[in-house]
Amino acid sequence: MLVHLLYASRAASPVTAATIDSILHQSLARNPGIGITGVLCHAGDVFMQVLEGGRTQVNELYNAIVRDPRHRQVMLLHYEELPERRFGSWTMGHVRLDRINPSLLLKYSEKPQLDPFAVSGQASLALLRELVATAQIVGRAG
Amino acid sequence: MLVHLLYASRAASPVTAATIDSILHQSLARNPGIGITGVLCHAGDVFMQVLEGGRTQVNELYNAIVRDPRHRQVMLLHYEELPERRFGSWTMGHVRLDRINPSLLLKYSEKPQLDPFAVSGQASLALLRELVATAQIVGRAG
Amino acid sequence: MLVHLLYASRAASPVTAATIDSILHQSLARNPGIGITGVLCHAGDVFMQVLEGGRTQVNELYNAIVRDPRHRQVMLLHYEELPERRFGSWTMGHVRLDRINPSLLLKYSEKPQLDPFAVSGQASLALLRELVATAQIVGRAG
Amino acid sequence: MLVHLLYASRAASPVTAATIDSILHQSLARNPGIGITGVLCHAGDVFMQVLEGGRTQVNELYNAIVRDPRHRQVMLLHYEELPERRFGSWTMGHVRLDRINPSLLLKYSEKPQLDPFAVSGQASLALLRELVATAQIVGRAG
Amino acid sequence: MLVHLLYASRAASPVTAATIDSILHQSLARNPGIGITGVLCHAGDVFMQVLEGGRTQVNELYNAIVRDPRHRQVMLLHYEELPERRFGSWTMGHVRLDRINPSLLLKYSEKPQLDPFAVSGQASLALLRELVATAQIVGRAG
Amino acid sequence: MLVHLLYASRAASPVTAATIDSILHQSLARNPGIGITGVLCHAGDVFMQVLEGGRTQVNELYNAIVRDPRHRQVMLLHYEELPERRFGSWTMGHVRLDRINPSLLLKYSEKPQLDPFAVSGQASLALLRELVATAQIVGRAG
Amino acid sequence: MLVHLLYASRAASPVTAATIDSILHQSLARNPGIGITGVLCHAGDVFMQVLEGGRTQVNELYNAIVRDPRHRQVMLLHYEELPERRFGSWTMGHVRLDRINPSLLLKYSEKPQLDPFAVSGQASLALLRELVATAQIVGRAG
Amino acid sequence: MLVHLLYASRAASPVTAATIDSILHQSLARNPGIGITGVLCHAGDVFMQVLEGGRTQVNELYNAIVRDPRHRQVMLLHYEELPERRFGSWTMGHVRLDRINPSLLLKYSEKPQLDPFAVSGQASLALLRELVATAQIVGRAG
Amino acid sequence: MLVHLLYASRAASPVTAATIDSILHQSLARNPGIGITGVLCHAGDVFMQVLEGGRTQVNELYNAIVRDPRHRQVMLLHYEELPERRFGSWTMGHVRLDRINPSLLLKYSEKPQLDPFAVSGQASLALLRELVATAQIVGRAG
Amino acid sequence: MLVHLLYASRAASPVTAATIDSILHQSLARNPGIGITGVLCHAGDVFMQVLEGGRTQVNELYNAIVRDPRHRQVMLLHYEELPERRFGSWTMGHVRLDRINPSLLLKYSEKPQLDPFAVSGQASLALLRELVATAQIVGRAG
Ligand SMILES: Cc1cc2nc3c(=O)[nH]c(=O)nc-3n(C[C@H](O)[C@H](O)[C@H](O)COP(=O)(O)O)c2cc1C
Ligand SMILES: Cc1cc2nc3c(=O)[nH]c(=O)nc-3n(C[C@H](O)[C@H](O)[C@H](O)COP(=O)(O)O)c2cc1C
Ligand SMILES: Cc1cc2nc3c(=O)[nH]c(=O)nc-3n(C[C@H](O)[C@H](O)[C@H](O)COP(=O)(O)O)c2cc1C
Ligand SMILES: Cc1cc2nc3c(=O)[nH]c(=O)nc-3n(C[C@H](O)[C@H](O)[C@H](O)COP(=O)(O)O)c2cc1C
Ligand SMILES: Cc1cc2nc3c(=O)[nH]c(=O)nc-3n(C[C@H](O)[C@H](O)[C@H](O)COP(=O)(O)O)c2cc1C
Ligand SMILES: Cc1cc2nc3c(=O)[nH]c(=O)nc-3n(C[C@H](O)[C@H](O)[C@H](O)COP(=O)(O)O)c2cc1C
Ligand SMILES: Cc1cc2nc3c(=O)[nH]c(=O)nc-3n(C[C@H](O)[C@H](O)[C@H](O)COP(=O)(O)O)c2cc1C
Ligand SMILES: Cc1cc2nc3c(=O)[nH]c(=O)nc-3n(C[C@H](O)[C@H](O)[C@H](O)COP(=O)(O)O)c2cc1C
Ligand SMILES: Cc1cc2nc3c(=O)[nH]c(=O)nc-3n(C[C@H](O)[C@H](O)[C@H](O)COP(=O)(O)O)c2cc1C
Ligand SMILES: Cc1cc2nc3c(=O)[nH]c(=O)nc-3n(C[C@H](O)[C@H](O)[C@H](O)COP(=O)(O)O)c2cc1C
Question: Which one of C112, E53, E81, J118 is at 20 to 30 Å from E30 when CA atoms are compared?
Answer without folding.
Answer: E81
